[in-house]
Specification:
This is DUF308 domain-containing protein. InterPro entries: Acid_resist_chaperone_HdeD, DUF308_memb. Pfam families: DUF308. The protein has 192 residues and is mainly alpha-helical. The chain has one domain (13-185). The chain has six helices and no strands. Helix 2 runs antiparallel to helix 3. It is globular, with a radius of gyration of 18 Å. The two termini are 29 Å apart.
Length: 192
């Protein structure tokens, strides 16, 4: 009779690393697909924009929370900030999904605040350590682009609905590509 031994901590770590890597790929591809859809069908996207953005906020909120909970970084402040942003993203996502017909000014404000806070977190995390020079540059650039997008939405409330959809589509596409590059750069071995 053969007994199966429980997995070792190293095996559990490798398994978790693979799962989080695939979760990162899913998050990046979600951003890319939603960005392309918003750019290809801006008229139709107006009616579902809040739902699309709500889904994105939920996915990335969960990713941020999981990253904060499982990070091996010793910088507690960066982990706490990442967790807070994750919770804010989840709350904003629930609001967007629950009240799809809420005024677009409120949704634009949520988008702007979410992007601004997420961008600030990205810049802080870029310089908090744990990245090489290239990773720091890419994470910092992603944060800066996100801050810029948030400021445009917050301080330019008069754009047409189509402009908001286009800005959102471009931002999701750029951010998704940058995230995909980051995730692929840190591919764990033995993904099979």
């Amino acid at each position: 009779m053969s007994t199966v031994s429980p997995p070792t901590p190293a095996q559990l770590f490798r398994s978790a690393t693979r799962a989080f890597w695939w979760l990162g790929i899913a998050g990046a591809l979600t951003s890319i697909v939603l960005g392309v859809l918003a750019l290809v069908w801006p008229g139709e996207t107006l009616f579902v924009g809040a739902a699309i953005f709500g889904v994105w906020l939920l996915v990335h909120g969960v990713i941020n929370i999981m990253q904060a909970l499982t990070s091996d970084r010793e910088d507690g402040a960066a982990r706490a900030l990442t967790a807070v942003v994750g919770v804010l993203f989840v709350v904003a996502g629930v609001i967007c999904l629950r009240n799809v017909v809420v005024s677009l000014i409120v949704i634009a404000t949520l988008i702007g605040i979410s992007w601004l806070i997420g961008g600030i977190t990205g810049v802080v995390n870029a310089f908090a350590g744990g990245y090489d020079a290239t990773g720091r540059l890419v994470v910092g650039l992603l944060g800066a682009v996100t801050i810029l997008g948030g400021l445009v939405v917050l301080f330019w409330p008069g754009p047409s609905l189509a402009t908001i959809v286009w800005l959102t589509g471009i931002w999701l596409l750029v951010m998704g590509v940058i995230q995909l590059v980051l995730v692929l750069r840190h591919r764990p071995g033995h993904l099979v």
